[in-house]
Amino acid sequence: MVDGRSVLLLRASLLSLGVGFLGAAPSFATDTPASAVEATTKDVVGEVRKLRENPQLGSLPPDMLRDLEKVAGSGDTSALVLLGELYGDGKLVPADPAKSFAAFEQAAQLDSIWGKIHLGRSYISGLGVDADVDRGLALIQEVAETGNGSALQALGELYSRGGPVPVVGDKALDYYQKAAAAGSDSAYVRIGELYRDGGAVSPDPSKAFAAFEQAAQLGNTWGKINLGRAYVSGLGVEADVGRGVALIEEVAATGNGSALQALGELYSRGGPVAVDGGKALDYYEKAAAAGSDSAYVRIGELYRDGGVVLADPAKAFAAFEQAAQLENAWGKINLGRAYISGLGVTSDVERGVALIEEVAATGNAGALQTLGELYSSGGAIPVDGAKALDYYERAAAAGSDSAYVRIGELYRDGGVVPADPRKAFAAFERAAQLGNAWGKIHLGRAYIGGLGVQPDVERGLSLIKEADIAAGWVMIGGYRSQGIVVEADRDAALEAYQKAADKGDVYALVRLAEAYRDGGLTDRDPERSIGLFQRAIDAGHVSARRILGESHLRGRFGARSSRDEGLTLLRQAQSLGDQSAPVTLANLYLYGTGVPKDVNRALELLAEAASGGNSSAAKTLISFYRDGRGRDVPKNLSKASAALSSSEGAFSPLDLMREKLLLSVASAQSSGRISAVLDEIRAAPPVIASPIIASLRHVNANAYVYFLQQELRDRGMYNGPINGLLTRQTIRAVGTLCSTSKTPGQCSYGPLHSRSANAVLKLLDGI
After folding, report:
1. How far is CA 614 from the centre of its chain?
2. pLDDT tens track for 727-756
3. With 90 as the cut, is the pLDDT of residue 483 above it?
4. Average pLDDT of the segment spanning 682-696
5. Most buried in the list 92, 501, 685, 743, measured by CB within 10 Å?
6. Please, what are the domains in the chain?
């Protein structure tokens, strides 16, 4: 999700990138006296600019548009530029790229600085005119050579944002510095962002802080907001959350939509500022009322995702629809996804895809990448590897470094496109070169695992550390705690998790809480563990409340465990939309853990949650009847089938396919039926086929053995009958497979033991 500032900057820099070519500029005759024209110009241009600050207006009154066109026809450059902007962004009048281009061209011919800048951007984008990047740059450089700060800053934008003009960090920084010297306070903001984010230039928190501070001292609103964020996060300065929030609140008190939205971000994202759904929603609603269309996007995301506020699909849809009506690109993208998934509306896949394609047609990297996601993830839209790859490549060309990450993942994982380790490595390397933190992490993992390159563990670990994001430190913590690829080191693991937690990673807080709860990495400390869980809850971790509640009920805190606290926490988690909470409660009641044993209550909890659309509860209820839970819940395929039929609406298309296949496996008795179902599973998308195969042992042991016999036969390790019976010949064949493992001891527990089964499936996958 792009933040409010990014949306505004993109709108400013791309405003005329949606223009076209009309031919001759519009001309309107006028016999109005000169003094009257001057007064009319000021009145009309001023009034229209005020209306543009309120995007919720909907449309410009026709008489006002006629007045503006009349003033523009008199040759007034400010009116021409404004007219070009209006027809370019299509917010108050229907978008007309041709008229937009013509207005900018006429303004430029009349020597308007902004006319030339906008016209240059139009040529660079190639929208409404044949693309001519050199001509566009020349027009803007012509103005910049006069020392004009706006033109210098426009060049900084072009060389730092990516797109038709390649990113050149040094050039961008030079232009921004010249713009700042020419009096542009917003240039200091962009300098700060470059040093904060890295990629275009090497990150430098101290220089970022200094630039934001300079912009703030000059009264720049975004300088104050970013300076506040720097104090909150400790970017280039000692963290001071109170001072940071106060700086942003000072701007918000003026009714500034961006500051209001920034506060919404702080109270909804988690980190140094504790999550407060009520405050976050209030700030976003105020930001929307102040004219921020992107605030509607965030409101929609909150209601879609739940956790921060109670999930409400209908409200999510309404918010995305409002953002889309205000021409917000991410509003349209999310509205499209809502139609595709049926979020708060009857599913309409074609309409959803069309909405996203409409945005993608403008060259929007986010829309192109979203289409790549849709065609690579499966679900309502069938997987199409070629389309997915094409959209990702176009998104990368449009400036999305994260698109290179997805290209690398596709080539790494295979399935959607044929696996190609070298292409995966190259894509991750490109993303890393562009400063993408996940690109560095994936590149590091490629070096560690030897994916498309000679293994180099030290270089891989160095890259993950260089990324310096919370997720990377969590990985380092995992490596150090489990002794994977490096020697186990409890202290180093704790240090890594702490670094991740200090960066606001709530998962790291949970890992630390679990470490102090269970021991292993450090001595057990129940009070400290509970405190860390509470911090994770305050920071918005969706599952922390449930995990803490379950820990109390299972007595994981020893004498400090509290049944009442545990039940309260689990019920709160359920009311806040944690889909796993009713599943956890049901399992506790089923086995009488921390609560009186009550099998009927367990089944009621699951059935009630499933009827409300909770897919996790529906899956669990179906599995209870499909696989059985001992004497408490006997296996009953009829009840499993009924549970699936009554909760089909809770599942995505892929999840529904998975549940139906698992039920087919459970009911397969004859060799012929088992063989047919296994063929169906192999024909299913890999994203569901692999988990089903991993579940075979629990669902139907004979089907699991049948699968093993087929796979071992195909590898020349078994030549006995394919019948699903665990014969000595089958066991010997499994032993032959296990002898190829570097750790054959994992197979010593017996073919149907979980450890052995996991090891065997990994070996089969790797052959």
Report:
1. 22
2. 999 999 988 888 887 666 667 777 777 777
3. no
4. 83
5. 501
6. 13-143 (1.25.40.10), 659-767 (no CATH)
- Percentages (nearest 5) of helix, strand, coil residues in the chain: 70, 0, 30
H/E element, 598? none
Number of alpha carbons in the 13 Å side-chain half-sphere of residue 331: 21
> How far is Cα 188 from Cα 208, in angstroms, rounded to an integer?
9
Q: How far is CA 384 from the centre of its chain?
A: 21
| CB crowding 175-188: b at 16 or more within 10 Å, else e | bbbbbbebebbbbb
Quote the tokens at residue 126: 């190639």
Per-residue b/e over 555-585, b at no fewer than 16 CB within 10 Å?
Answer: ebbeeebbeebbbebbeebbebbbbbbbbbb
Q: Give the span between the Cα atoms of 62 and 145, in whole angstroms.
A: 39
d(CA 259, CA 216): 13
- The 3-state DSSP class for residue 633 equals strand
Structure tokens, 158: 């072009």
Contact 512, 501 (CB under 8 A): yes
Contact 507, 474 (CB under 8 A): yes
**512: Cα separation from own chain's centroid:** 25
Residue 291 token pair: 């004219």
Contact 508, 501 (CB under 8 A): yes
d(CA 175, CA 187): 9
Q: Residue 623 is which amino acid?
A: S
What tokens were used for 270?
């988690």
Which amino acid is located at 670 in the chain?
S
171 contacts: CB under 8 Å, gap ≥ 6: 155, 159
Percentage of the chain exceeding pLDDT 90 = 68
pTM, 2 dp: 0.68
SS (H, E, C) 107-148: HHHCCCHHHHHHHHHHHHHCCCCCCCHHHHHHHHHHHHCCCC
List the end-to-end C-alpha distance of the chain, in Å, as a whole number.
Answer: 40
The structure tokens 């545990």 sit at 566
Per-residue pLDDT at 197: 85
Helix, coil or strand: residue 629: strand
Residue 746, pLDDT score: 65
The torsion region of residue 613 among left (phi > 0), alpha (psi -120 to 50) and beta comes to: left
pLDDT given at position 101: 93
Contact between 117 and 140 (Cβ < 8 Å): yes
Q: DSSP readout, 685-744?
A: -HHHHHHHHHHHHHH-HHHHHHHHHHHHHHTTS--S--SS---HHHHHHHHHHHTTSS-G
Distance in angstroms (rounded) separating the CA atoms of residues 32 and 76: 13
Distance CA 43, CA 389 (A): 51
- Cβ–Cβ under 8 Å, residues 232 and 244: yes
Q: What are phi and psi of 633, to 5 degrees?
A: -135, 95
